[in-house]
Prior knowledge:
Chain A is mainly beta. Helices cover 0% and strands 54% of the residues of chain A. Chain B has strands spanning 4-7, 10-13, 19-25, 31-37, 43-50, 53-57, 64-70, 73-78, 87-94, 104-105, 109-113.
Amino acid sequence: AQSVTQLGSHVSVSEGALVLLRCNYSSSVPPYLFWYVQYPNQGLQLLLKYTTGATLVKGINGFEAEFKKSETSFHLTKPSAHMSDAAEYFCAVSPPSDDYKLSFGAGTTVTVRA
Amino acid sequence: DTAVSQTPKYLVTQMGNDKSIKCEQNLGHDTMYWYKQDSKKFLKIMFSYNNKELIINETVPNRFSPKSPDKAHLNLHINSLELGDSAVYFCASSPRQGRNSPLHFGNGTRLTVT
């Protein structure tokens, strides 16, 4: 079964500092990969996705992620954190078996210090 | 202009009761889902419908019964509620079946069973 691991359940950064959220997946065949963000009391929103092609993917709100097959990783970064980036971030994988099941990681809570 | 809307937003009820959560999407999507988010924010798929046809039915107690009267609606009925059913339930939709189709989430229904 496909699985996704997010290292660090909680990340705290200063405003203006780099945000780095780690995601690793387990699969012998690269899955499709997604990052979603959940603001308090809201549903999840898609930040970005990787399917095929360019391994560096840009998303909304200045976020980007790089797919590294050799490391089975899809880490999310943003060069300069903003207070509005405080939220829960979920990495998700869609397996190559095309059974439409999206598997989510456990999530990483980001807090931004002024 | 809400894309995926769920009602109610909060639901507090006693053990043994039967309750329903409604979901509607106005995006013209073919596929709809129910996800359960537990107290540790872990997200797990419960059901998925494509054009009113059930395509994913995870290991969910048969007290949970989804119903899709048309492709814009997917309701969730829960019989004989238990304490362990307390969670946030998210409805989501996607343009079509397939692993490349991102999800659009509603804002969730927080169910508390006392």
